Amino acid sequence: MFATGVAAAALTGGVLFVLPNGASAAQFPTFGLPFAAGQSTGSAGIHSDDGTSGVKNALDLNPDDGVVRAPLAGTVHIQHCDGGDWVTIDHVDGWRTGFYHMEQIRVSEGQQVEAGVELGDIGNALPCGGSSTGAHVHFTIWQLSASAAERADNPIAAGNWDDVSYGELSGKVADAVGEPMDGKVFGGWLFNEGAEQYSGTATNQASSEVVELPGSFDYTG
Ligand SMILES: [Zn+2]
User: Per-residue pLDDT for 15 more than 60?
Assistant: First the structure.
């Protein structure tokens, strides 16, 4: 009886310790990279949305075939500005990915996509501002964990970013819901930010190969 009581107390202690941690942050899903496996990509490294300030929640990619694909299943939202459109996808548990500078966008508002579905081509589009010096996709992550009440009176928390400028993405959007690229894994590559904008490393989890960014690496899938 005494031994059973001790075991039960220990188990209860363990559960109490684990639950608050588990509830504090949405677990990061198993994402692929946003292009087809079996090719290499260049990457300018980890940076903020405007490349000067704010949470470093973005990565530039220019895969060899130039085609951007959904890195995980989700629901497409088209964000509109005077200069055109760009694409975000809402995934499980409030995770959102963004795809800026794309041309020939091939998805539409509300579309349900599976991983690997073509979203468009890498490009130099500037629908809401910003700049681009060569065709690529600016790939960003956010965590939209707002409550229903917060979403009701806050368009940023609700994920409606129509007419939000590229600069505002690095400011008020990143402040509210930006999620650092640092420590995240996409397609078996672990990304870590560097001290500067447009820097960092990609580490292959299977081979332990470390690629300094800017640089290029292979997506074996
Ligand atoms: Zn970028």
Answer: no
